């Protein structure tokens, strides 16, 4: 077999085994070396003379190899090392595998023998805090397969193990105590005193986490520790023959523990590198590596393929490994960087401002965007200079009055045409609340976008154009449709901003007339009178938005300004404890992650490192980082508008309108659903568009199961041919594709550019 | 499709000799699919793989082109490739095949006219004749191309007289506006580019075609502008011409079912006069309009329509029966006869009977209504009464307390 073939057929595991076992293979010396070795051995034996009986041939050979067949140096080395060793050297490096040229390495093990390899007491373990921009997983690769470095995996496994230990500690305690009785106990009193003095404080803090293996050395009568393990350790001091070794410094003791503890556990007959690893760690290497375990578990969870059993020579039975894999349950566990917050309690602790979002709706050209632009200017979220710049730009295309609207309408199509096309979001804060503005488009073609905005809102501002004719046409148009929509999306609080009152000279009659009409149809729509507020404003001038109108003609109005009304509005109750649901309203690519999504958490909470599931693609991803209000945060809860940076997912699986959910409690996918619908128009078996937030899917009403009583919900008529407007019916809708849907969701049905029904999924 | 012989006419169909037809365009396969039903006999050219054994025992396999007659067991129509696969048992033997062997004939349009002969198992009834007439009809407008789009979604459709073929669905994610990044223009132009290249590859623009661009908002308009600028940039004369002739129409969504709105619009009515599609679409709209009024002159579902037809309510002066053509295809004889009977009765009464293609959007709307609907000449109320009572009775006994 050629070398090339050898490399090509190289098995990773074999290579590892080979590496571990190269002691057998690498001792083949070339003939020349062998000849030199033989000659050298004879020379050394001759040079050593009578002392030759104290060293073995192997030791000589090793020394020779080490000193490149320099006989003199070898002799010196052998003499100092084996024949006349310094007093502290008790055990010669004997019984090493024959002539291993790398044997010199093992001397390292000797040096670090009393290091508690992989057995760091829990209280000394470092807490790894990931740097904010840290990349997850190994460098390189596309990130398709969630790959974490061995180190991370080991850390995770160790952490896990430590936790498990904590749980089973009581049982293990007795056994461990016994073990200690047999082997440890050697704590010379001379060393105890200073330690007890200097470290008493420290020990107290660590006693809760102290485990049997932690070599707590305490002076018995002065302190009786509540920790069973440590007290047991101390109370039965057995005097063991003192070991001939340099006394440990106090620092070393603190770092590594009492050397006696470690020393006695080491089987000294032969040792190799990491000889004194605790059995748990040694076990870790006879079993599949943590990497394999993670990958296998993930494969098992994700694709239902049988866990890849790594074939290893001399591993314990496959069942045991499988059992272990099962126990680990790493697949759904957050990545190691997760801080495992209890988000709900964190949320209760944090006394941050209330967050609330509101949608601004109304007929096209009612002045929604302009009003919000003015509001942001008055609240100093944007500065006058920006507005002046926009005004100059607007002047160049002859639309000066649009300058304020351009604060929110940033797309070139929106500016060129002077209409809002898509939802624009912006933020401002008042004394008590942080508000998110969702500026909705008023044009009927963009109602899907408006629905998306309304689904993210706690309450709504309905902007009504008070100028003659405009109000009337708006009432027939989107003023009405928007009110219907926001009500059916579950928004119950509405503030009506009667806009452009400056154009009608702040006429109170006009205001009252509009108020009567609008409150009339709003209460028909289902808004309660107490949840409706009216504010006369001028969006362009900014009267009654933040500051009171200075116009004497407007002095008749003494009620609250728009911002005051906003502050009076209580955001709806959040479903914090429910499983995570978040509708994706935007997907884009950023420096932090190629899959960055934005949206509002509908229910539940999310934290950094969490595993999440994207529906309907059913792909899993991890939350790399979270941003709220342009600042990185560790967690977020329902009601917040956030940006998530995802990792371990291909952008192809993430679309606008998809739902991010808890992998343990995913939202089901369906293409047929039954809903209780309130008809706004005639319903019969027909084609409809189904809207749910950003989700927009084509489908049709398959059957109308029953007409229902509006109040009691009882069946009035079975299988009606047609559903008349303003009646409630139970209908079955079939969609063209699978979409994430669950009971209790609010959906809107549209057909031919008209909203025909809205209702709840059953 | 054409008759294979000049002497053949609709009036004189010899049941024994069968009807021989020539496939002259891909669209014919759709008609053939409507015409051929289970139990019919088809004689058509076919390829048969024949294995011969030589004296030494070695086998030679080869494909033989031969004419076969099969009794149809099933048909499969591939709308995108315009291929009709007809499976059945061979009924007359020849050199290569023996009687009773199974064979699947693939009928498709090829360069040389393909001739096939059809014998209907139950004779040429009125519906079969109507299908044949449609298939033979000479003057057929060129297929219209429609791109129904919205932000991030475009459906490229080819609307022929009888069906709508969604040639390509283009989907891409458009980054929405955020305060941090201001240009979604990049996303949109990438989307337009994708749509345009798909449009050019999916549709043959060498023959002059009407191109309809439909969308809510400004997407279609912007796409047209994009095509124009691309045409100018690439100095592509044909693209410039396509862009110039494109008609921009409003639709409420970018989904295929918005084609109904597109075809209703005045811009389209101006360019496409008498296409079957528009007529059917209008009829469906008329039906929904009547349903809204709830004046008892519009009914859907088999039972009410049957009753109305039996009463003679679908007759002269505006009576229209709308039936999905799928009802006449591969169905058991009894059911087919029932529906043929309905169609004949309506024609007898002087009404109009329309077979809507389920491959068209209007047909799909009819499908939603159960595949059959009727516009009545006079109001009839409570056609669904006993129906209701029956099912209601069952419910009563089951639930007992249901309040109606």
UniProtKB/TrEMBL annotation, chain A:
GO terms for cellular component: cytosol; Dom34-Hbs1 complex. SUPFAM superfamilies: EF-Tu/eEF-1alpha/eIF2-gamma C-terminal domain, P-loop containing nucleoside triphosphate hydrolases, Translation proteins. Residues 159-183, 204-234, 301-320 are annotated as: Disordered. One of its GO terms (molecular function) is GTP binding. Its main location: cytoplasm. Pfam families: GTP_EFTU (PF00009), GTP_EFTU_D2 (PF03144), GTP_EFTU_D3 (PF03143), HBS1_N (PF08938). It catalyses: GTP + H2O = GDP + phosphate + H(+). Residues 353-574 form the Tr-type G domain. Residues 161-179 have a biased composition (Basic and acidic residues). Keywords: Cytoplasm, Elongation factor, GTP-binding, Hydrolase, Nucleotide-binding, Protein biosynthesis, Translation regulation. It is found in: Cytoplasm. The keyword Cytoplasm applies. One of its GO terms (biological process) is cytoplasmic translational termination. It comes from the Eukaryota. The keyword Signal does not apply. Component of the Dom34-Hbs1 complex, also named Pelota-HBS1L complex, composed of dom34 and hbs1. Belongs to the TRAFAC class translation factor GTPase superfamily. Classic translation factor GTPase family. EF-Tu/EF-1A subfamily. This is Elongation factor 1 alpha-like protein. It comes from Trichocladium antarcticum.
From TrEMBL, chain B:
Keywords: Cell cycle, Cell division, Cytoplasm, Meiosis, Metal-binding, Mitosis. It comes from the Eukaryota. Transmembrane segments: none annotated. InterPro entries: eFR1_2_sf, eRF1_2, eRF1_3, eRF1_Pelota-like_N, Pelota/DOM34_N, Pelota_N, Ribosomal_eL30-like_sf, TF_pelota. GO terms for biological process: cell division; meiotic cell cycle; nonfunctional rRNA decay; nuclear-transcribed mRNA catabolic process, no-go decay; nuclear-transcribed mRNA catabolic process, non-stop decay; ribosome disassembly; RNA surveillance; translation. It is found in: Cytoplasm. Its cofactor is a divalent metal cation. Its main location: cytoplasm. GO terms for molecular function: metal ion binding. Component of the Dom34-Hbs1 complex, a complex that recognizes stalled ribosomes and triggers the No-Go Decay (NGD) pathway. In the Dom34-Hbs1 complex, dom34 recognizes ribosomes stalled at the 3' end of an mRNA and engages stalled ribosomes by destabilizing mRNA in the mRNA channel. Following ribosome-binding, the Dom34-Hbs1 complex promotes the disassembly of stalled ribosomes, followed by degradation of damaged mRNAs as part of the NGD pathway. Belongs to the eukaryotic release factor 1 family. Pelota subfamily. This is Protein DOM34 homolog. It comes from Trichocladium antarcticum.
């Amino acid at each position: 077999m050629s070398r090339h073939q050898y490399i090509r057929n190289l098995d990773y595991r074999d290579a590892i085994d080979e590496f571990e076992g190269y002691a057998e293979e690498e001792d083949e010396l070339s003939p020349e070396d062998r000849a030199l070795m033989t000659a050298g051995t004879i020379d050394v034996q001759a040079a050593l003379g009578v002392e030759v009986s104290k060293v073995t041939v192997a030791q000589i050979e090793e020394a020779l190899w080490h000193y490149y067949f320099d006989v003199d140096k070898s002799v010196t080395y052998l003499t100092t090392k084996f024949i006349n060793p310094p007093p502290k050297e008790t055990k010669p490096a004997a019984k090493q595998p024959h002539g291993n040229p790398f044997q010199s390495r093992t001397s390292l093990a000797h040096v670090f023998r009393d290091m508690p390899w992989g057995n760091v007491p829990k209280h000394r373990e470092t807490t790894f805090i990931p740097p904010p921009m840290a990349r997850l997983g190994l460098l390189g690769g596309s990130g398709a397969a969630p790959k974490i470095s061995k180190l991370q995996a080991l850390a995770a496994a160790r952490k896990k193990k430590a936790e498990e230990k904590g749980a089973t500690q009581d049982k293990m305690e007795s056994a461990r105590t016994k073990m200690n009785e047999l082997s440890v106990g050697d704590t010379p009193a001379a060393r105890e005193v200073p330690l007890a003095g200097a470290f008493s404080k420290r020990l107290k803090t660590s006693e809760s986490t102290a485990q049997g293996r932690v070599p707590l050395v305490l002076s018995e009568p002065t302190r009786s520790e509540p920790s069973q393990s440590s007290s047991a350790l101390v109370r039965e001091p057995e005097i063991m023959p003192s070991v001939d070794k340099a006394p440990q410094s106090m620092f070393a003791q603190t770092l590594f523990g009492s050397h006696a503890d470690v020393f006695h556990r080491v089987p000294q007959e032969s040792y190799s590198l990491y000889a004194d690893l605790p059995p748990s760690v040694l076990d870790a290497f006879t079993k599949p590596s943590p990497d394999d375990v993670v990958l296998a578990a993930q494969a098992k969870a994700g694709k239902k393929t049988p866990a890849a059993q790594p074939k290893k020579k001399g591993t314990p039975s496959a069942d045991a490994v499988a059992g272990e894999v099962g126990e680990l349950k790493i697949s759904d566990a957050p990545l190691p960087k997760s801080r495992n917050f209890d988000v709900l309690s964190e949320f209760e602790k944090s006394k941050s401002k209330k967050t609330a979002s509101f949608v601004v709706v109304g007929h096209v050209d009612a002045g929604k965007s302009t009003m919000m632009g003015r509001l942001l200017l008055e609240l100093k979220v944007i500065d006058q200079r920006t507005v002046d710049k926009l005004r100059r730009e607007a002047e160049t295309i002859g639309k000066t009055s649009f300058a304020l609207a351009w604060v929110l309408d940033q797309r070139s199509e929106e500016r060129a045409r002077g209409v809002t096309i898509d939802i624009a979001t912006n933020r401002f804060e008042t004394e008590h609340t942080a508000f998110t503005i969702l500026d909705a488009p008023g044009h009927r073609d963009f109602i899907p976008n408006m629905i998306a905005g309304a689904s993210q809102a706690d309450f709504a501002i309905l902007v009504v154009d008070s100028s003659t004719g405009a109000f009337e046409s708006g009432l027939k148009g989107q003023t009405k449709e928007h009110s219907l929509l926001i009500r059916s999306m579950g928004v119950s609080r509405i503030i009506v901003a009667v806009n452009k009152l400056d154009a009608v000279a702040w006429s109170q009659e006009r205001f009252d007339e509009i108020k009567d009409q609008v409150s009339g149809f709003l209460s028909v729509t289902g808004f309660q009178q107490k949840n409706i507020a009216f504010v006369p404003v001028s969006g362009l001038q900014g009267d009654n938005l933040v500051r009171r109108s200075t116009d004497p003609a407007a002095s008749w109005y003494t009620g609250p300004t728009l911002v005051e009304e906003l502050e009076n509005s209580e955001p709806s109750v959040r479903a914090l404890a429910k499983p995570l649901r978040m509708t994706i309203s935007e997907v884009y690519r950023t420096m932090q992650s190629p899959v960055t999504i934005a949206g509002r958490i509908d229910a539940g909470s999310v934290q950094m490192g969490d595993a999440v599931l994207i529906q309907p693609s059913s792909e899993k991803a991890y939350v790399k980082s979270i941003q709220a209000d342009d600042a990185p945060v560790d967690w977020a809860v329902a009601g917040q508008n956030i940006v998530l940076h995802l990792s371990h997912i291909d952008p192809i699986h993430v679309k606008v309108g998809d739902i991010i959910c808890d992998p343990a409690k995913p939202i089901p996918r369906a293409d047929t659903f039954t809903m209780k619908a309130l008809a706004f128009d005639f319903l019969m078996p027909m084609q409809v568009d189904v809207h749910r937030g950003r989700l927009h899917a084509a489908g049709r009403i398959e059957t109308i199961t029953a007409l229902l009583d509006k109040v009691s919900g009882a069946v009035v008529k079975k299988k009606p041919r047609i559903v008349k407007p303003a009646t409630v019916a139970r209908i079955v809708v079939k969609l063209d594709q699978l979409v994430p849907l669950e009971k209790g969701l609010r959906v809107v049905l549209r057909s031919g550019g008209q909203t025909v029904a809205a209702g709840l999924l059953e | 499709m054409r008759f294979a012989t000049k002497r053949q006419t609709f009036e004189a169909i010899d049941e024994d000799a069968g009807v021989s037809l020539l496939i002259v365009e891909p669209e014919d396969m759709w008609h053939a699919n409507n015409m051929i039903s289970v139990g019919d006999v088809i004689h058509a050219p076919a390829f048969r793989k024949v294995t011969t054994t030589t004296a030494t025992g070695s086998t030679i396999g080869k494909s033989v082109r031969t004419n076969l007659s099969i009794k149809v067991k099933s048909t499969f129509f591939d709308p995108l490739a315009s291929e009709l696969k007809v499976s059945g048992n061979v009924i007359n033997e020849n050199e290569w095949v023996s009687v009773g062997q199974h064979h699947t004939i693939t009928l498709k349009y090829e360069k040389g006219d393909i001739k096939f002969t059809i014998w209907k198992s139950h004779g040429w009834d009125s519906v079969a004749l109507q299908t044949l007439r449609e298939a033979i009809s000479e003057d057929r407008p060129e297929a219209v191309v429609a791109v129904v789009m919205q932000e991030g979604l475009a459906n490229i459709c080819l609307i022929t007289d009888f069906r709508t073929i969604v040639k390509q669905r283009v989907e891409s994610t458009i980054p929405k506006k955020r305060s941090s990044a201001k240009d979604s223009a990049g996303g949109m132009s990438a989307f337009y580019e994708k749509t345009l290249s798909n449009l050019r590859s999916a549709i043959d623009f060498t023959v002059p075609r009407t191109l309809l661009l439909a969308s809510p908002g400004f997407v279609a308009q912007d796409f047209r502008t994009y095509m124009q600028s691309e045409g100018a940039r690439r100095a592509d004369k044909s693209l410039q011409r396509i862009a110039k002739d494109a008609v921009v129409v409003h639709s409420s969504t970018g989904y295929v079912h918005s084609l109904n709105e597109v075809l209703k619009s005045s811009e389209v009515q101006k360019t496409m006069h008498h296409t079957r599609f528009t007529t059917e679409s209008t009829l469906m709209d008329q039906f929904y309009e009547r349903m809204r009024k709830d004046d008892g002159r519009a009914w859907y579902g088999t039972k009410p329509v049957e009753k109305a037809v039996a009463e003679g309510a679908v007759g002269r002066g505006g009576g229209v029966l709308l039936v999905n053509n799928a009802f006449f295809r591969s169905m058991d004889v009894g059911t087919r006869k029932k529906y043929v009977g309905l169609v004949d009765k309506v024609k007898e009464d002087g009404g109009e009977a329309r077979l809507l293609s389920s491959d068209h959007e209007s047909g799909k709307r009819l499908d939603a209504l159960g595949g059959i609907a009727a516009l009545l000449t006079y109001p009839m109320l409570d056609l669904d009464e006993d129906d209701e009572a029956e099912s209601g009775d069952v419910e009563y006994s089951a639930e007992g307390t249901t309040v109606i």
